Predict the 3D structure of the following.
Amino acid sequence: MLAYDGKAVGTVLQLTEEQSKALQAAKIIGEKEEPDPVESELQKAIKELRGEITTEMKGLFANLREGLKATSADIRVIKDNAMDNPENKFGYGNWGNWAADVKLFNRSNQRTEKLTKYLKFMEEKLAATDKAASGQNELVGADGGVLVPTIMSTEIFKKAFPEQSVMSLCDNRTISSNAIEFNYIIQNSRADGSRHGGLLAYWIAEAQAYISSKMQFNRVGFRLEKIAALVFVTDELMADAGFALEQEIVQGCGDAIKFLVNDAIVEGDGLKKPKGWTQSACAISVARGLANRILANDILKMWERCPSWLRSQAYWFINQDAEKELDKLFLPATNVAGTENVGGWPMFLPAAGFPNGGLVGTSPGTLKGRPVIPCEYASTLGTANDLMLIVPSQYRTVSQNSGITGATSIHLRFDYGEQAFRFEYRVDGQSMWPQAMTPYKGTNTVSPIILLAGP
């Protein structure tokens, strides 16, 4: 480097601001860039660690899930390791502190307290055990081990299953006890003398004797039945996967319980569970016109069995396998002689509508103006109950007012180092119609539950 203005190299100059700017413009001097202390520490540690990691450390890292093979390439990405977490169980605030302890161990075989805990953890993690974990653990990938990889995020990916809440459409009540009875009016017929439980109104002439009538009542009882879910999680997995895993357990168990409740509302047998629509005494089964098909006439027959005063509250529930049948439904138009079909009108209006500006339905699609809900609780195409016309408001559920409750314990499997998560929900349900109703005029009974029969 050349001297400047007769001054030796290394001489400290005192310059005015104008002189400094002029020398910088001439590229004789420049501003000194201060190194990033964190980056410098990391680079220094990486350089010193190359070739210095012992066989023991290589063996440990080689067996870790997703593999830290103790090479310089792996060291460059170790920035994302769990060691970066200042709240981790070993007390390392950053990777540099961990690297310094490893370097000390390699050179003088001295282990700090933190590194001793870390190595013990790794040895226990990789050691064979004769006590297999009964629940969530780190040793088996699918059971939770993949949630705590050495160079991966702990965020959990899951397939999305939108909740189909049948229960939300029903008449839901909550109680604080374990059982309750509801009074209802006995009305199995709309004939004179049967409406409103037996009340009779009539035309009467002057001075004619009155005829008395009275109402009849009955009670229907509900007793809460319990659904439970239990999950074991190892202490190691809880410490390493942490909050993300706990959230998924809580949400997953809640969804599993809701699924069973919804399924029981549809087809529960009433034994230690709600009595579902398909098992209700009032349910009406309509004969299917053709095996493995849903025909326009099937829809018309089901619709005529739904009480006219409840149709505005009705929903169609259909299995996804049977949806393709809906697009084929149409009411034919014939020629004057009635001998040939010359066109027709679609019965089902899909949510997406038709191409080229054709008919457009609402969301979801509709049949006879009422929503069609694809539902995995309905039976598959060609079997009984693949299509159901239901008025959910006439089905009552009773549940504990505390909702789904959860509890945790470290004592149940303390000797295995596992925590227990337990969830409970208590619920019952049944139709408020004890049987189908005979209409005022007509021979076919009506009901809020109409099912399409099997072949």
About this structure: Residues 53-87, 150-155, 353-362 have pLDDT under 50 and may be disordered. Residues 243-267 form the longest helix (25 residues). Residues 277-404+429-452 form one domain. The first strand starts at residue 171 and ends at 175.
